[in-house]
Write a structure and sequence with these properties.
Elements: E1 7-11, H1 16-27, E2 31-36, H2 40-50, E3 55-59, H3 65-79, E4 84-87, H4 102-130, E5 133-137, H5 150-170, E6 176-182, H6 188-195, H7 200-210, H8 219-230, E7 241-244
Parallel strand pairs: 1-2, 1-4, 2-3, 4-5, 5-6, 6-7
Helix pairs in contact: 1-8, 3-4, 4-5
Length: 250
């Protein structure tokens, strides 16, 4: 895979899969636009620049129109266009439909789904020019029933359906849209959720047990799937959902 001369935007690039993906694209020659709602992606950007990688950090809330607009316009102004958009920003809300209050439901939909809609909509004219690629992060909960994840499951199912719709819509214009579908990945946010549970040791055992491989995924493993989904090595692939879940959905 080679992304030399390509401009790649990664939302949620401050940690986990987003960070790993940004580093992977940089390793393969891309210019990077890294985004996070906090300053978390600023260090990622600084590390890339220190290595000689063309990279900028855009602090913005991409679930808001102005934030998404700031991200896309800054990318185009800085690098002249967009080749790849990776939508990795997201949150995980616990609870059944009875446990999940309206505020949590609405926030989950806004952060996880509306952000994808906004960034994709605003980036599409530039992606069309370069016959680019969108890679959206779904989840095994989009295709498998999992307890205590009502809002999260709904958002990831929505992203999967939206991605397939966009893939069909823009296939004639050379824009591809693919998804990467992780199982449970050992990220900083995951560790915080486990630590906040009533019994962290048991919670970790339960999460590991869901993966038939007997371990959690690593952000770098998911990053490789993201790179593949965006690569010009697989230009015949669009509307795909690449499952990387340790066998969880077998």
């Amino acid at each position: 895979m080679d992304f030399s001369g390509k401009t790649v935007i990664v939302t949620g690039a401050g940690a986990g899969m987003g960070r790993a993906a940004a580093l992977g694209f940089a390793r393969l020659g891309a210019s990077l636009v890294v985004n996070s709602i906090s300053d978390s992606a600023a260090k990622v950007c600084a590390d890339l620049v220190a290595q000689g990688v063309p990279a900028i950090f855009v602090k913005a809330d991409v679930s808001e129109k102005e934030g998404a607009k700031k991200l896309i316009e800054t990318a185009v102004k800085t690098f002249g266009g967009i080749d790849v958009l990776v939508n990795a920003a997201g949150i995980v809300a616990n609870g059944s439909v009875e446990d999940c209050d309206e505020e949590t439901w609405d926030k989950s939909m806004k952060v996880n789904v509306k952000s994808v809609y906004l960034t994709s909509r605003l980036a599409m004219p530039y992606l069309r020019q370069r016959k680019g690629v969108i890679v959206n992060i779904t989840s095994t909960v989009a295709i498998k029933g999992v307890i205590n994840r009502a809002a999260y499951s709904a958002t990831k199912g929505a992203i999967l359906s939206l991605s397939r719709s966009m893939a069909a819509e823009y296939i004639g214009e050379g824009v591809r849209v693919n998804c990467v579908c992780p199982g449970t990945v050992e990220s900083d946010s995951f560790k915080r959720r486990v630590a906040a549970s009533p019994d962290p040791e048991q919670a970790m055992k339960d999460f590991v047990a869901r993966q038939p491989m007997g371990r959690l995924g690593r952000p770098e493993e998911l990053a490789e799937a993201i790179l593949f989904a965006a690569s010009t090595d697989v230009t015949f692939m669009t509307g795909a959902n690449i499952v990387v879940d340790g066998g969880m959905t077998i």
